[in-house]
Amino acid sequence: MTSIRHPAHEPSTPAVPRGGDGAIRHGFTSFYGAPIVEDMASWRADVGFVGVPFDAGTNDRPGARFGPAAIRDASARYHPSEEWRGYIDAERGVRILDGVSMADVGDVDVRTVDLLENFDIITDAARLTRRGCRLPVFVGGDHAITFPIVRAFDDAPLTLIQFDAHQDYTDEKYGVRYSHDNHMRRSSELPHVRQIVQVGLRGVLERFEPYDAALRDGVIIVPSERIVRAGVPAAMAALPGGRGRSGGRAYVTIDIDVLDPAGAPGTGYPEPGGITYYQLKDALLLVAERYDVVGFDVTEVDPVYDAAAVTARLAAKLMLDLLGAIFAA
Ligand SMILES: [Mn+2]
Predict the structure, then answer these.
(1) How does residue 2 score in pLDDT terms, banded at 50, 70 and 90?
(2) How much distance in Å is there from the Cα of 50 to the middle of ligand 1?
(3) CA 171 to CA 168: how far, in whole Å?
(4) What is the pLDDT of residue 163?
């Protein structure tokens, strides 16, 4: 009987228990198979992933709390082999993330407590994560999480760039001020948020106040249809900043519903229309070229409404695309 054995008996992933090289790997998933952080005081990595399994800010269809688990699972087949030498972007013929180290920090310790108490926990988790890595990546969760995350980036001014079908700029509705429909307005009130850019807006708005307020506040709006009709470079010409990242620091927040729900059905608020995966990828790469991206999040992936896990897989791929552009030489 012949035994089939890996020639060098090398581990297929760094997620291996001590002594298990080449024979045993961890059965639990981490983002992209990245090593799991075991000591918050001593870890260091270029990229730190943290899940935010929170959807108490959703006002219609819940389930985004399962987003981190679904995206971890979907990302497992994207783990880089060959000693973390990154990947080859097969479409552009370039190597990405070569030598860039990644770690999975874990999930924010969301609890059955008051909404604002959970926000404080999320902000604390974001600050802790920032300490160990150059670029933290937050995986939601509903979009309400972006405000407590952005709060943790208060050491210097930044531009907040949002990809979303919806503005999420409502000040207050029925006394609610902190849902996934309010977070951009709350972030706009933070002194370190100097400019807001909203990409992908579409649909109809029943209330005029949020839209008018955004215009009054100098928010730059790039509607979805402009991207579809004019193309990404022309539509994104409205953004300040140019090559060489002269736009300064930016935090990027991606609501997966910016995409056409035909291609990304797994989300709580599907909105007809929207952009394609390639258009979003191009727009993200353009942002990474013009700005110094200091962190980003992906929100509103909801496996409860997903079909064949395509939305989670898409999110996992987009995160790699954006990381590749951020760490491009
Ligand atoms: Mn949103």
Answers:
(1) low
(2) 19
(3) 9
(4) 98
CA atoms within 13 A on the CB side of 283: 34
What's the gap in Å between 221 CA and the centre of ligand 1? 14
User: In terms of Cα–Cα distance, which of 228, 218, 231, 237 is closest to 262?
Assistant: 228
Q: Report how far ligand 1's centroid is from the alpha carbon of 10 (Å).
A: 43
Q: Ligand 1 center to residue 174 CA distance, Å?
A: 19
Task: For residue range 93-103, list pLDDT tens digits in order.
Answer: 999 999 999 99
pLDDT tier, 23 (very low <50, low <70, confident <90, very high otherwise)? confident
Distance (Å) from CA 271 to ligand 1 centroid: 11
Domains annotated on the chain, with CATH: 31-326 (3.40.800.10)
Length of the chain: 329
Copy the structure tokens of residue 202: 């579409």
Kindly give the distance from the C-alpha atom of residue 181 to the centroid of ligand 1, in angstroms, as a whole number: 7
pTM greater than 0.70 (yes/no): yes
- Ligand 1 centre distance from Cα of residue 127 (Å): 22
Q: By the 8 A CB rule, do 84 and 323 touch?
A: no
Question: In this structure, are residues 97 and 324 in contact, taking their beta carbons and an 8 Å threshold?
Answer: yes
**Contact in structure between 6 and 22 (CB atoms under 8 Å):** yes
